């Protein structure tokens, strides 16, 4: 039996996950409160180490990083993200990065850009300017805010919670297996080429690592059990698609 027409829950589509790494308590609380009020799911950290932990486990859509953290750890965190290969590391090397630097930190601005920041904002800054810069980063990255839940037949993907259920049964997926399934489910009938999947999930530097993609697709099929071959379709010589059915339609309000 073929999977049912995939549907998308649109009720939470305007939420993006934002990581805020900021040492100053007052600034961190102010920004977190306002960004949450503006519809972001905000993750907060007051150190580079905690920020790295959240980057590895929560996969934010954009990150704001205090470049002035002690011992240059903010700059080191920027570099660590950009140097991640997306395979051995759980960090997404393509996450948009906005660095926050001191008002007299011209050298910090240069260093932040050298370490991989996509944009730099000098203190003091207005909240409105911060929001506009965040929105611009999300647009440039091609991120479509939020995502809510995707449903394809008996397969349900909660993109905000990073959770997957098949016929009501939770599946234990690795970060990359989840990312692969999410990309395929977002446009389930289109054939996603191997090169674009490698670029979007593992980073451009690993475009040639097709065996990495194939092994993750095989493991994903196994975890889906008897439905694996039905949901993760290998289009030989081209790439993968999720299913052979019509495109998603919005759920009725």
TrEMBL record:
It holds the Pfam family Trans_reg_C. GO terms for cellular component: cytosol; protein-DNA complex. SUPFAM superfamilies: CheY-like. Keywords: DNA-binding, Phosphoprotein, Two-component regulatory system. One of its GO terms (molecular function) is transcription cis-regulatory region binding. Residues 147-244 form the OmpR/PhoB-type domain. GO terms for biological process: regulation of DNA-templated transcription. CDD domains: trans_reg_C. The keyword Nucleotide-binding does not apply. Signal peptide: none annotated. Residues 17-138 form the Response regulatory domain. PANTHER family: PHOSPHATE REGULON TRANSCRIPTIONAL REGULATORY PROTEIN PHOB, REGULATOR OF RPOS. This is Unannotated protein. It comes from freshwater metagenome.
């Amino acid at each position: 039996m073929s999977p049912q027409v995939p549907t998308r829950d649109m009720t939470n589509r305007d939420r993006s996950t934002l990581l805020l790494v900021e040492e100053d308590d007052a600034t961190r609380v102010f920004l977190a409160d306002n960004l949450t009020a503006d519809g972001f799911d905000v993750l907060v950290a007051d150190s580079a180490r905690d920020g790295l932990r959240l980057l590895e486990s929560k996969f934010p859509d954009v990150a704001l990083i205090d470049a002035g953290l002690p011992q240059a750890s903010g700059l080191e965190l920027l570099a660590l993200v950009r140097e991640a290969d997306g395979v051995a590391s759980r960090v997404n090397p393509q996450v948009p990065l906005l660095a926050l630097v001191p008002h007299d930190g011209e050298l910090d601005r240069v260093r932040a850009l050298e370490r991989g920041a996509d944009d730099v904002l000098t203190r003091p800054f207005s909240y409105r300017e911060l929001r506009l810069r965040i929105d611009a980063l999300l647009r440039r990255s091609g991120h479509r805010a939020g995502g809510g839940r995707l449903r394809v037949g008996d397969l349900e993907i909660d993109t905000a919670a990073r959770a997957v259920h098949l016929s009501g049964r939770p599946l234990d997926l690795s970060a990359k297996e989840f990312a692969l399934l999410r990309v395929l489910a977002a446009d389930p009938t289109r054939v996603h080429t191997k090169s674009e999947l490698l670029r979007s999930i593992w980073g451009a530097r690993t475009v040639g690592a097709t065996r990495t993609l194939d092994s993750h697709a095989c493991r994903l099929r196994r975890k889906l059990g008897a439905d694996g071959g039905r949901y993760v379709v290998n289009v030989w010589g081209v790439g993968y698609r999720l299913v052979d059915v019509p495109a998603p339609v919005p759920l009725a309000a």
